[in-house]
Amino acid sequence: MEYREPLLPVEQIRDLSYFIDKEKLIIRWLWPYGADSVYIYKASEAEGDISIHHITEENAKLYTKDEYKEFYGYHKTIDSIEKSTYWIFPCIRENGKLLMINQNGIDNKISISTGKINIYYSLKEKKRIFGGIKTVIITVICDAPVKKDVLCYVIKSGGSPIHKEDGKSCSFHQDFEIGVNEFPEIEIRKDDYVRIFFEDGKKYGEIYELTRR
Questions:
Q1: pLDDT per residue over 159-188, tens digit each?
Q2: Which of 44, 115, 143, 170 is 20 to 30 A from residue 129's alpha carbon, by CA?
Q3: Residues 8, 77: one domain?
């Protein structure tokens, strides 16, 4: 697909925003001067930043200004909980050709989360009659598949840990499936406590909701 760089700031998408209304995702923006259509590309979280060279008629949606006016924005039905990035490329006609304007990710992309995946966990402790140890069984319940590096469990002596660095951090060794995930019991000292945290709270806290049962 053909494109060119913007010649003036008025040729660029501005004020890109979104909101969720029940099962609908609605994206809005200010149209640039001379543009009667845009190409909309949805990138998964794993893709990261893209370039305009990545855009094709097959992987992007052509959306006209008339459609935008009719529906007051771009509407899409939400069919899954995910985090993605939408890129909006304005298009103009020059010499009979439709050209995209390359904004290089400046004001024409927006990260969108359509909700949070619920993760519940429980900790079942069992003290042994002899010796200074006890066992803990960790159970994790997920609404959707979750990678093993999303969560960790922390062991702390003398009290319950309050954050990931507040004790010994341990990794899980398998991914979490939809539904109940029960792990083999672990042995800790009688005055140790266990709690589950996100490996990266800032990153995963936007996608998942972690709750102890």
A1: 999 999 999 999 999 999 999 999 999 999
A2: 170
A3: yes
